[in-house]
């Protein structure tokens, strides 16, 4: 019989609700505690999900001896601080993306994980999703020829401008890059690896936060990627992959519905779709517990090196686009 | 009864065959002569299309008093020379895109047209095509909100590398930019106008010709366009338009089949399709003869100003991407 892992939820906001809803469906996960700086939010979440212990601080959650794995869902700006606190208490951590605000902080997080011999993984769902795994399989099979160009994007338009809101606040790592742009960046890294050159251009608010952003990655031999993110387009996420013999498009309607379509000359389009169970955030939790069962402190699908590469690239994009987080690069 | 216009075809190659096939279906067009530097190619074309006069030089075609309108279909590198020769003989001219190799030459072509009081239009089919006209109508209606981002592309992969071939020869204005990239550039100009900033990156052959090319246009208020062209991707042409409330995609399977699809949140996609007669190159000829019937020396749909703006933009892209045509910028 598989071990049941005891989870704690740190910062019970919107994203934690989505994750917990899926986590509850896994029979080897038990949610034993939740921690918020606000006691009533914690209690409300505990009642909603039937969680036994509701703490009014993150520290109480981190020091609860019952808790084995903590899902960190606070704003990007606090990921490093919270994950490090949990890991220093010997807890394994699944930490929401972006892992932190800059590469220096990400490296520190890895060091703390190693020092404490605990598991740490960035909660980045893409590499676990069937559309991306199938797309990679198709590209690697060579049936579409060499990958020449990738266009990745993520836009939503449901956040009215609020200078204090998380999305627009530089103190909280606001801006489209860390919230959604990094999905497009991840697409390029996932299919093409590290670019040899980066350029970027952003529309910045008066507080220096990017509301729309374009990025271009140059690879050897004339291979390119164009990437885009914005708080002002209702496009959702997507990725078009242009190859020598055809084009592959990945789209999704919400996180639980994914579609992949390939088109090559002279043939009918081929479509693949995945729904619900196959696509969601619980794939991250499944991976965490699989690694823990096997005694691994790092995922092979979303390893340290991938988070390192992602944040290194994000740092470079920020430098080119003039995006800064006060006191943190 | 409408006047029947007497056409001559200059340079009877592949593109002229496509055009002539469609021109023949118009009841107010008569194809009276064809001119090639190669007499047997001319004779072959005349036999194929039932054209009375086949000349072994462009000069004979340009000076034939029967001919009223000449379609110039030679390589880009010779458009200016040939169009100017025809216009100086008092002929109206429909000249294939790219109109020439640089802005200076394009300006000279306009000046010659004005001086001789003849009609001149760049044979650029996009603004006549129903998908682009419908797309513009939808954007201007405001139903999708403000246009925020445009991704335009054109790729084909059917030209094996041949340093002497037209596509790869800098002396002939080779490279993806003038052959297909300008369609993507036109898309951005058509929907967004002139950018305030341009950046570009190209893969160049040893002779300095771009086989793949990415371009980024920056517009005010965080609006961007990413554009791509390549001789190494089997993508065909397309354009995605990202707006505040949804996304609009224009695609085509060959020049005679066009599709437009709009997607906005919470509604089913809306699709429009057009086939054959509605889409082809003959739309250009229809416009030419309509203007001539009305005594106009310039098209309002594809006016001088549009060709001027397009070539000015192409010059700027070349400067950023390091693409040069020997002796011509």
TrEMBL record, chains A, B:
Record keywords? Oxidoreductase
Task: Please give the superkingdom of this protein's source.
Answer: Bacteria
Q: Locate the GFO/IDH/MocA-like oxidoreductase domain: which residues?
A: 132-248
A GO MF term: oxidoreductase activity
Where is the Gfo/Idh/MocA-like oxidoreductase N-terminal domain positioned along the sequence?
8-123
The record's family statement is: Belongs to the Gfo/Idh/MocA family.
PANTHER family, per this entry? OXIDOREDUCTASES (PTHR22604), TRANS-1,2-DIHYDROBENZENE-1,2-DIOL DEHYDROGENASE (PTHR22604:SF105)
The molecule here is called Oxidoreductase
């Amino acid at each position: 019989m598989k071990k049941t892992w005891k989870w704690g939820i740190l910062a019970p906001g919107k994203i934690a609700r989505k994750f917990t809803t899926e986590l509850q469906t896994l029979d080897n996960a038990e949610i034993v505690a939740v921690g918020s700086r606000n006691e009533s939010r914690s209690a409300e979440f505990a009642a909603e999900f039937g969680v036994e212990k509701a703490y009014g601080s993150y520290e109480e959650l981190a020091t609860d001896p019952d808790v084995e794995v903590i899902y960190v869902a606070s704003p990007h700006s606090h990921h490093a601080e919270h994950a490090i606190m949990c890991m220093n208490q010997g807890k394994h951590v699944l930490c929401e993306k972006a892992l932190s605000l800059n590469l220096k902080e990400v490296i520190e997080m890895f060091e703390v994980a190693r020092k404490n011999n605990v598991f740490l993984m960035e909660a980045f769902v893409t590499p676990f999703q069937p559309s991306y795994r199938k797309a990679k399989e198709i590209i690697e099979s060579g049936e579409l020829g060499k990958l020449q160009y990738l266009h990745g994007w993520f836009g939503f338009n449901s956040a009215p401008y609020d200078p204090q809101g998380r999305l627009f606040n530089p103190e909280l790592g606001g801006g489209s890059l860390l919230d959604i742009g990094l999905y497009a960046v991840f697409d390029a890294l996932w299919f093409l690896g590290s670019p040899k050159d980066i350029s970027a251009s952003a529309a910045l608010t008066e507080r220096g936060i990017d509301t729309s952003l374009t990025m271009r990655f140059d690879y050897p031999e004339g291979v390119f990627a164009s990437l885009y993110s914005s708080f002002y387009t209702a496009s959702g996420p997507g990725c078009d992959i242009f190859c020598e013999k055809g084009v592959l498009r990945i789209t999704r309607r919400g996180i639980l519905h994914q579609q992949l379509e390939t088109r090559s000359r002279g043939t009918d389009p081929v479509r693949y779709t995945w729904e619900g169970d196959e696509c969601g955030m619980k794939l991250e939790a499944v991976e965490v517990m699989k690694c823990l069962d096997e005694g691994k402190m790092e995922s092979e699908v979303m390893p340290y090196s991938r988070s390192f590469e992602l944040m290194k690239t994000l740092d470079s994009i920020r430098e080119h686009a003039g995006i800064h987080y006060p006191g943190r690069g």
